[in-house]
């Protein structure tokens, strides 16, 4: 059953940016690199878009109050402990922040210019006040991201930039990460909604 995240003193959350356990981090890093090699760029873009659209569809079915309601969910594979107490709209805002950062990064890596600004994990945390506007914002970011990727050629070209958990990644690997990241937080949103429904019963 879902519980309010601010009433769980016996289940403290980690600090923003703490990351995920080493074994999961290693497995995810391998998965990201494998996906960048085995899955075509356009297929990854389609997965990126499909997972974001699923997340937005789920959020659109909620009232503004339920979308803002924070619940504590059990940690699952790939999710940072500090993220377990978010609302649905907070999860969407996180996707807006991260996908915007990767969209800005990809052309610079592709052209070997390097990212203009390094974004730390703690800077990607959403605010509790996040609301339904995040659905619109994410839709815009997804469209812009797709346009940027479509205009780039072979994302395996260019230079690499280090992710704080997964190490140096090429543009192709950051693209794979973006798709996997959307999937992770779509699953988080599903779990938040199940917790909301359980609390309502």
Describe the protein:
Helix 2 packs antiparallel against helix 4 (88-110). The relative contact order is 0.22. It is globular, with a radius of gyration of 17 Å. A two-stranded antiparallel ribbon has the order 1-2. The protein has helices at residues 22-38, 41-60, 64-68, 88-110, 133-151, 171-200; strands at 161-163, 167-169. By secondary structure, the chain is mainly alpha-helical. The longest helix is centred in the last third of the chain and has 30 residues, at 171-200. It has one domain: Up-down Bundle (Four Helix Bundle (Hemerythrin (Met), subunit A)), CATH 1.20.120.450. This is DinB family protein. InterPro entries: DinB/YfiT-like (IPR034660). It comes from Thiohalocapsa marina.
Describe the secondary structure blueprint for this structure.
Blueprint: H1 22-38, H2 41-60, H3 64-68, H4 88-110, H5 133-151, E1 161-163, E2 167-169, H6 171-200
Antiparallel strand pairs: 1-2
Task: Supply database-style keywords.
disordered N terminus, two-stranded antiparallel ribbon, Four Helix Bundle (Hemerythrin (Met), subunit A), mainly alpha, DinB family protein, 2 strands, 6 helices, 201 residues, DinB/YfiT-like
